Amino acid sequence: MKVSYNWLNEYLDLDVAPRDLAEKIARTSVDINDVYSLSDGLKKLVVGKVETCEPHPDSDHLHVCLVNVGEEEPLQIVCGAPNVAAGQKVIVALNGARIADNQKIKRGKIRGIESNGMLCALQEIGFSDRIAPKAYEEGIYILPEDAQPGESVFSYLGMDDTIIDTDVTPNRGDMLSIYGNVNDIAAFYNLKPHFKEVAVEESDDQATSDLISADVPDEKIAPTYKLRVIKGVKVADSPLWLQIRLWNSGIRPINNVVDVTNYVLLKYGQPLHSYDYDKLPSHDLSVRHAQKDEKFVTLDDEEQVLNENDIVVTSGNKPIALAGTMGGQETAVTKDTTTVALEAAVFDSVMVRKQARRLDLHSESSMRFERGINPETVETALNEAAQLITELAGGIVTQGIVTGSEKPAKSKEIELSLSKINHVLGTELKMEDVTDVFERLAFSNKLTSNDTLLVTVPARRWDISLPADLYEEVARIYGYDNLPESLPVMTRNHGGLSPRQKFIRATRHDFEGMGLNQAISYSLTTVEKAKQFQIDPVAEPMKLDFPMSSDHVATRMSIISGLLTDVAYNVSRNVNNVALYEEGRVFIPRGGERPEEQEHVAGVLTGQLLNNSWHIADQPVDFFQVKGMVERYLHNMGIAGKIEYVADHSRKEMHPGRTANILIADELVGFVGQVHPQTAKEYKIPETYVFELNLEQLMKAKKVENEYTPISKFPTITRDIALLVDTNVTNEEIVDLIKKRGGAFLKSVHLFDVYSGAHLPAGKKSLAYTLTYQDTKATLTEDQVNQAFAKVTKRLQDQLKAEIR
User: Fold this and answer.
1) Contacts of 428 (CB under 8 A, 6+ apart)
2) Helix or strand or coil: residue 564?
3) Which candidate, 698, 699, 689, places its Cα nearest to that of 516?
4) Is residue 297 a contact partner of residue 330, using CB atoms and an 8 Å limit?
5) Same domain membership, residue 748 and residue 618
6) Does residue 796 or residue 710 have the better pLDDT?
7) How many separate domains does the chain show?
8) How far is CA 372 from CA 349, 352, 465, 505, 615, in A?
9) Which of 52, 106, 223, 563 is most buried (CB neighbours < 10 A)?
10) Is the pLDDT score of 47 beyond 90?
11) Planar angle of CA 458, 462, 463, nearest 5 degrees
């Protein structure tokens, strides 16, 4: 809400600067969006009187005006406004003035005629189109007759006021009124407000009940509904003081009747609505639910299609207003209106919010109905509005109020314990301190014992219903800054990561060290994608009863599908080299009510891992590079069991000739390979390689204990061997045999050449290895190495039928 500092000063004796007041409100009541004045950034704007106004000799729409700005000689100003005329008091931007958007006004010539300033519209000095009066949309603004030439325009237009723009939370609906702000500010500054209420003067000529009736069959939708009638009004523009009140609060002035209802809304937080009495289809008003597909034209000239959950005010069963949200076009007050039916009500907040949101019709009224209405001031606001209309628009107020429903305003009694207050707030307050807070809030209270207090909360603070709410009131009025500070009580145990957390963190660091970037994907996906890329295929994925969208209906059983979506996103934006990993949970149904949650890690690579340079040629990612990453990761994690990579073609979304299951001690823990070209086409991605590992199994696997092995100071000896073997003999079989029979001094086996093709017998291939020997305690002799090498050669010949080349 935009709160006027000058308006607050009418009801409070404030001795504090506006910005200091705003800071206090922010620390005590509600947040502050901004503190500003409409005059900020403007200068040299004065009142001018148009002495003469002649047509421009070289234009059909410009005028040459002589304007009195309080100086010895009038200024000649060229103006293009269609409503400019002699005798008017206008806004003048002098030479050197600053107007809206920091625009500087300079002396110049317009079509050959000298112009020494500018006659301004409200929009040109910073008023938005939303609050500037419609009557001046196409021209300059005309100031009142008592404006003195040469004086600053700021005081005449209320631009010298400071506006405190509060951000009211849903629980503090009472702060959406000047009345609520005055009460709250008076409490925390310990001031006595002198809030003014205007009493209504009724006519004895005719009773309101003879002119109109109200019926509310279901009081749940309208707990309070009241009407008054004002006869003999003359609709015109509001006086300037009222217009200033409205536009400083962000509301556009319309006419004296509508402006009064908006003024009272701002003052009390009570929305009102005025009907043209003579345009009502019937003078029997009622409140009901709308009918399905019932149509209604609102004040913004838009046709609304209603449903059974909407609330309407009807006249003779015909809708005349969308209750609590917006009135109807057919019964709106116009310049021809002479009799006004004035409505004040309390409508169901939930229903108003739903209809305003569904129809996208958020208004000042709906905002207040949604947050709650003070039941104590419904009739007060209705009476004051009726009286102000007679003062500003003439006419008489008929006798009495017509009531369709009325829910009495009830205060709440809450018992508090002083010891409990001090325990919750950490204070040592005395009972006098607590009662002083409630006296400042105008909450009546009485002692029931030495430690307990019975507090009566008025209906205007409907947000308070529990003792905890009053603890908060004590804290904020006493001052949050005055509450004692203390360090939290903490244990002396040293913090640290659990083994599981350490393993997961090390996993992330390891893959990041290999050049992969971390990604985070949705845990929810489509059923089809949830079934893809499973390590150990199981039943159907778990499905949501109420999914957010068709793309998020099932829990994932693999991470890879989400990573492929990330690859597609990057590739579509010409990022062709993608290397990502993700560590997260998958959800495996096991027949129970909840799925089994497992930690997995997966990676995806496409394009090149290293960029081209002068000494590095193109090297697209391939199966062996990705497999090497997995091998290095398992080695770095210290996995002790036997690790095997077994060719697999069971997963239809993976390439059947370039996929391998990963087994540790004969237990399946993951897989690595190329995404099937058809699957890659469906994801709109190029050739891509992936892996996924079950971290739960890796964390359970046996680990190699960390130990220190000094670097040997003795030299190594190498032997090369080339073998001719059958094509069905694998590298793994040969390496395992060499390591098993290589002796105690064999340190490593390295495959450095593979050949098959011409000059070799059919069904044969050639593999060449380097065997490295080393003794950590002495220098090896040729005989020791030759003896060990001979054993390896013999075993290869005997067991694998290898031919030594």
Assistant:
1) 422
2) helix
3) 689
4) yes
5) no
6) 796
7) 6
8) 6, 11, 14, 50, 73
9) 563
10) yes
11) 125
CA–CA separation, 52 and 74 (whole Å)? 10
Whether residue 510 is found in the same domain as residue 545: yes
Same domain (yes/no): 542, 666: yes
Q: Would the CA dihedral through 356, 362, 367, 368 be positive or negative? A: negative
Tell me which residue has tokens 């077994």: 646
**Residue of 684, 660, 694 lying closest to 674 (CA atoms):** 660
Q: How far apart are CA 336 and CA 675, in angstroms?
A: 77
Same domain? For 222 and 293 the reply is yes
Average pLDDT for 140-156:
94
Query: How does residue 380 score in pLDDT terms, banded at 50, 70 and 90?
Result: very high
Assigned domain for 265 exists: yes
Strands 396-399 and 202-207, sheet pairing: parallel
Which of 405, 422, 449 is a domain's end point? 405
Determine if residue 472 is labeled as part of a ligand binding site: yes
Q: pLDDT of 605-650, one tens digit each?
A: 999 888 777 777 778 999 999 999 999 999 999 998 889 999 999 9
CA 151-100-40 angle, 5° bins: 65
**Contact (Cβ atoms closer than 8 angstroms) between residue 622 and residue 628:** no
What whole-number distance in Å separates Cα of residue 300 and Cα of residue 302?
6
Two structure tokens written together for 464? 């308070």
CATH classification at residue 65: 2.40.50.140
Higher pLDDT, 759 or 402: 402
Statement: residue 246 has pLDDT above 90: yes
Q: What is the 3-state secondary structure (H, E, C) of 668-692?
A: EEEEEEEECHHHHHHHCCCCEEEEE
Q: How far apart are CA 2 and CA 246, in angstroms?
A: 10
pLDDT at 495 over 80: no
| Final residue belonging to a domain, choices 347, 373, 405 | 405
488 lies in a domain? no
| pLDDT confidence bin for 758, thresholds 50/70/90 | confident
Q: Which pLDDT value is given to residue 124?
A: 93
Same domain, 695 and 618: yes
Annotated ligand binding at 218? The verdict is no
CA torsion angle for 617, 623, 629, 630 (degrees, to 10)? 180
**Mean pLDDT, residues 393-411 taken together:** 94
Whether residue 334 is contained in a domain is answered as: yes
3-state secondary structure (DSSP) of residue 530: helix
Query: Binding residue per annotation — 692?
Result: no
| Residue 72 sits in the same domain as residue 117 | yes
Q: Is the pTM of this model over 0.85?
A: no
Alpha helices of 124-233 — where are they, by DSSP H?
Answer: 178-189
As a whole number, mean pLDDT of residues 467-485 equals 93
Task: Find out whether 469 is annotated in a ligand binding site.
Answer: yes
Please give the angle made by the CA atoms of 704, 709 and 710, to the nearest 5 degrees: 165
Residues 6 or more apart in contact with residue 158 via CB below 8 angstroms? 6, 38, 244, 245, 247, 248
Cβ pair 690, 621 in contact under 8 A: no
Q: Who has greater pLDDT, 83 or 537?
A: 83
For 247-256, write each residue's pLDDT tens digit. 999 999 999 9
Parent domain of 452:
413-482
Mean pLDDT of 497-502: 92
The mean pLDDT of 587-594, rounded to a whole number, is: 84
Indicate whether 153 belongs to any domain: no
Assign residue 590 the CATH number of its domain. 3.30.930.10
CB 803 within 8 A of CB 796: no
Token pair 């009736």 is found at 213
CATH of the domain at 735: 3.30.70.380
Task: Judge if 738 and 694 occupy the same domain.
Answer: no
pLDDT band at 709 (very low <50, low <70, confident <90, very high): confident
